[in-house]
Amino acid sequence: MHDTTCTPALADIAAMRDAVAAAGGDPAILSPTLPVDVSVDHSLAVDHYASTGAFQANAKNEYGRNAERYAFMKWASESMEGVRVHPPGTGIMHTINLEQLATVLQVGKDGFAHPDMLLGTDSHTPMINGIGVMAWGVGGLEAESVMFGQSVSLAVPKTVGVRLIGCLPAGSFATDLALEVTHRLREIGVTGEFVEFFGPGVATLSADARAVVANMAPEYGASTGYFPVDKSTVEYLARTGRSATLCARIEPAFRAMGLWFDPDATPAFDREVEIDLSTITPIIAGPRRPQDRCAPSGAQARIENAIGRPLGHTDKDESCPPDGAVAIAAITSCTNTSDPSLLVAAGILARNAREKGLTSAPWVKTSLAPGSPSARALLQRAGLDGDLSALGFDVVGFGCTTCIGNSGPLPEAIELALNDGKAVAAVLSGNRNFPGRVHPKLDLGFLASPPLVVAYAVKGDLKGDIATDPLGVGTHGEDIFLADIWPDAVDIALALTKAQSAGDVSRAFAGASQSAAWNKIDARSQSQFPWDAASRYLRPPKFASAVQPTRLGHYRAKPLMVLGDDITTDHISPAGAISADSAAGQWLVSHGAKCDDLNVYAAYRGNWEVMLRGLFTNKLVRNHLQDGLAPYETVLGDGRVMRVFEAADAMAQRGDNAVLFAGERYGMGSSRDWAAKGVALLGVRAVIARSFERIHRTNLIGMGILPLQIANGFVPQSSGISPLDILEIDVPSAELVVRKKVPVRLSQQNGPEQSILCYAAVETQQEVGILQEGGVLSKILTSCLG
Amino acid sequence: MKHMSINAGETGLQVINLPEILGKSLANLPTVLRLLCENHIRNGGAVEPMLDAMRTPADSGFEFFFCPIGY
Questions:
Q1: What sign does the CA torsion over A86, A88, A94, A95 have?
Q2: How are the residues of chain A apportioned to helix, strand and coil, as percentages rounded to the nearest 5?
Q3: Which CATH architecture has domain A546-573+615-784?
Q4: Per-residue DSSP letter, A98
Q5: Range 247-276 of A in CB contact (< 8 A) with B
Q6: Cβ distance of A766 and B31 shorter than 8 Å
Q7: Which of A47, A420, A656, B42 has the fewest CB atoms within 10 Å, counting from its CB?
Q8: What is the DSSP-derived secondary structure letter of residue A401?
Q9: Fold of A284-501
Q10: Per-residue pLDDT reduced to its tens digit, A4-36
Q11: Complex ipTM above 0.95?
């Protein structure tokens, strides 16, 4: 788990412990039965950059902003057996898992050996599939269930085989392959399916490169992006400092179990896709979805299409950002910083640019945030850290940063450009670029390999074609082109040979783990958490403090909102900055917070008051219940327009049941359980959508909310649903079965009564039981209370 | 649980004998399904329904019970 998904989960457990204690039970009974690793990686913001002091300054801010949450996590690690916290600075959870925690083969004291497997509360958990560890992302609620000994029940998944042939050409990187895979698999649709890579091309990829491709499984929509275990896996383990004993055991054990990779094998997948690695070229993806890959020459057209106008001419003043400027250039994310060759490639490009007399454009916010603290030693030994620093790519920390929206404030020049109506974009080596994801004010973002990120920082804009236009003027007045500074494959290989050391990983991790700042945090071991009634960060969640009744039944309901397609969990429950004029900001200020330092939503997932007020506040949310509504508004049957959470409260006070309508792919994006918890707090009994993204569907069920998938041609956002319409839903608890057909009668004020054919998007008997018991937390609490 | 002893490195280990349990199905199964089977067996799940499902996976109604094991 990471620090923003663990906080709500641990807060749930703390509240349930209180409930157990209040009932006369032993609160300590609520301790995980499986090992739980928590990585504090999601709270580092890029406030300072392009300076050698940025690392320390950002770390100081992080501790200052999150002291209360961190003390809570430390309490959990002291008071709950099996919970281990990796403090800030130890890296990103998926990189830690790759480099430190995963064993590929688990051997018990009894001599029994099994393939290593895990579940993670982050959608990018499948990154570990790159080294043959079966894993996928689950919602926080599902994780809580697993922590307390429940298995995850799943129907036999559909499998998709991606047959790889050929090998990547020089100059192309794992990032390019990951973006191509994302595009190809999104084209055919693999939501919830298990993707596995096979064929001779697999053997040509390093385990590091495989992890890049596996990481983006949620972007291609799959549960997994699995690469079987082979010699490259074992070589990776040895290179990252795993024991010789472990490395020696893996091949014989996996061969004996029939799990060792055979490049000539042709398993029977439900579907197959073939990708010829030799055709992969440097590409980018954007400006609003990871699957929209294009050649760099297509960036301008993509932006113009997105903003609906041509980009303007470049200003004569070269110190001002032009229309189409790069606002942020960030080497960030587990996705593309865990592969040392990508970091070295970025460093070599920086070195080549510096030698030619180039530097980054002055308006670009540059940053380097590797997923592993060992990256610093790698770049230093390769002699590339100074070159990256010269172009503004100083290490700003070891955490998720820009990739998850913690990009910090924009440069003043970019703020002015936005005020002037110019289009500006982020270029990042991250995994997502949904509008507002990287920064609330940025609607445009391109995903790219680390060397391309540096190149775009130098060019300063996304106009024309970075491959053929000059990047700048060299020391001798000559035009410098991308080809002049693009990293050579031989140089990358030489640098890696020179720089990699098996001892780096464990040494850097151990050093970061002995954090003086973390050790100073005062947290005592006690079975019940001492809640502070004045806290702005931690409040006992209502839904975990008592057993909740089931939301199933036969009832009449009214629509709370009608949403369209591609509503992400970011849209439902934001993670980014809180503005002072928002409902959440106003609540925080009224409780003593400073207007200019409200922190981000992700930091408040232990406080339901803030999270409730943040629901559906993303500026791109459109509520089709009535024209002209602001994103955070809805309308009641009496015509009153209110904030969504206030309207839900008004409906509840009148005894009205609420349901929510949505289009295709409802709940795509991050695995955040607050997107379901928040909707549960709104009192919603069912979400009726054309389709659901996998993790969010399970999170809804985890909160006791019935996902109803529309099975006929009904399209909610174009059906003229009004706040006066009445729905009748008939799903008695005792009659719910897997994929039950559920007719929903819709009585519209301005139209005939119609039946919306739906089925319960409930895939297993275990999920049926969860809904019948009012959600995962109720189920756990019920079992504890006897 | 059907398991087998192997020599792995300097020591012997016990592993689940997937090739024997899955028989001819093994070659056709993607590795992800083999892994789910291994996990299902080690967690004490019923083997026969799983084998039936592996022969005809589509809409078999079979459910894996997946749970990582921590040592």
A1: negative
A2: 40, 20, 45
A3: Alpha-Beta Barrel (3.20)
A4: I
A5: 248-250, 252-253, 256-259, 261, 265, 267-270
A6: no
A7: A420
A8: G
A9: Aconitase; domain 3 (3.30.499)
A10: 889 999 999 999 999 999 999 999 999 888 889
A11: yes
